[in-house]
Amino acid sequence: MYMKMRRSARISEILLIFAAISVWFFSGCSSKVTEPASGEEICPPCSCQDNSSPGTVDNHYFYQAIPSTIVDQGTGGGVGYYTSLAFDSNDYPHISYYDLSNGDLRYASLEPGEGGKNRWRVELVDQIGDVGSYSSLVLTPENLPRISYRDETEGKLKLASYDGTSWHTEILDPDGNNGMGSSLALDPNGYLYVSYTRAGTSDLRFLTSTPTGSVAETVTMDLGQNVSFATSLALDLQGIPFISRGELWYAKYDPSRNFWIRELVDSQGSSGAYCDIAISFRENPVISYFEESNGDLMVALQSYDRWQVYRYDTAGVTGLWTSIAVNSQGAVGLAYRSQNPDALRFRYAPTK
User: Fold this and answer.
1) How far is CA 248 from CA 211, 229, 256, 274, in A?
2) d(CA 352, CA 284)
3) 337: number of CA atoms within 13 Å, CB side?
4) This prediction's pTM
5) Taking the domain 2-348, which CATH number applies?
């Protein structure tokens, strides 16, 4: 019991520190690089046919033909909000997202098709009430999806789990109006962790879900209405959770100086909306985001302390609600919403 109390206190202390830090670092995913970076590079986009497949960074064709695929156009438009992307152990992409028109939680996965042509399988996960906003996806070691999301009708944090045959949903936190800005993580023991906020108060909440049940706690009290509902959760190798919240920013920690360094990434136009970050196969940060000025999908990669910025999709208004992930071969995947046409889209942006 004493050890459990110490662990709980340590987690709470860490989360309090990161919540405070994230409010202080409030600058957006936004700076211009005047010189090209050396080392790792993102392959530039190109026009090509619609034919998705898991990528490998050593595949020459894959470098030359990076498809932009329409994954789902729904039944009345409005799909592709609150996207969350993950790769399975075979490097196939999976996406959870919200159907705004129908108020449903949807899920798409790329599967092998006839004649070697892969196809997207789209599923309706939850449609009882208005559900699916703030979706966050993780895959178990068996490639089974787990999705945290908000039930707007009930005002609750929910979890959808697939057992290999069917989907099951449950309310994770019945205490108050919560579940906004959910972010989900899975530790090596298979335990689920969720960070999220309460409506009205902006309280930061943290929940642990194990086979014996779920435990939720308030980590920080109200930080003010100017704080974003969005949260981002990650686990270190020891399974200790770290949470960032607040406005969009990029920051890195310098352990030698015990100091946080924040950096601008792209200062051109109105950049930084719907920003999502992942770590490349060379352990460099790579960021997807929306440039509002031109309505484009942007990708930025840091290499040798410099940023490369690419305009990756310019077809109409596209690149909203981006989610980014890196597969085992180092290929960067992007899930996002476009408005022309109204659809959920996916494409690769491999690094070399």
Assistant:
1) 34, 11, 25, 9
2) 12
3) 21
4) 0.79
5) 2.120.10.10
